[in-house]
Structure prediction request, 51 residues.
Amino acid sequence: MMSTPIESASEHVEWEEFARYRLSQGGDLRKYYPLTKEVEEEYQAWRKQQA
Prediction:
């Protein structure tokens, strides 16, 4: 199923918040922005904690 533009935008905002959070903790910009496959699992775990 395809997501709606609102769902896509919301998810984009969430991963940008995650990236800012990780960067504020000293994370590598190249790893977190844009979000890489390498950190997808970490991002999904963060999303679950935010719910």
Q: What stands out?
A: DSSP finds three helices and no strands in the chain. Residues 5-50 form one domain.
